[in-house]
Amino acid sequence: QGQLVESGGGLVQAGSSLTLACEASELTLSNNVMGWFRQAPGKEREFLAALRWDSRLFGDSAEGRFTISRDNAKNTVYLQMNSLKPSDTAVYYCAASPHFSRSQSDYRYWGQGTQVTVSS
Questions:
Q1: pLDDT of residue 100
Q2: What pLDDT score was predicted for residue 20?
């Protein structure tokens, strides 16, 4: 079964940039749609971005500030986040799906999440 491991989270100041990484094992990124989601305390999990080949989808919170990319040689997908705000504080998850979708129910494999905290 596919496994995903996120890294790169941490504590940053508002206005900073941060890049999260998600390394896959027993799963080939190029054969899957890779997505990023986040969940803030007391809120539902929110779609951020998805990547299929060279096509991308973005959620409202990510549009214009976040980018998603993939390194097939490293079997790793990235989420670059710019102009971070305190409201971006959440646990960030990567996930893999056979469908090019914003819906978390379409994603079959999930990482354990990495915490991002943005201080004001």
A1: 97
A2: 98
Kindly provide the b/e burial profile for residues 4-40, where b requires at least 16 CB atoms within 10 angstroms of the residue's own CB. Answer: bebebbeebeeeeebebbbbbeebebeebbbbbbbee
- 91 φ, ψ (degrees, to nearest 5): -90, 130
Which DSSP string do the residues of 4-34 spell out, in sequence order?
A: EEEE--EEEETT--EEEEEEEESS-GGGSEE
Low pLDDT (below 50) residues in the chain? none
Handedness of CA 19, 9, 102, 32 (dihedral sign): positive
Angle in degrees, CA 93, 86, 119, rounded to 5: 105
pLDDT in tens, 44-68: 999 999 999 999 999 999 999 999 9
The pLDDT of residue 103 is 97
User: What does the alpha-carbon distance between residue 78 and residue 91 come to, in Å, rounded to a whole number?
Assistant: 15
Longest dimension (CA), the chain: 40
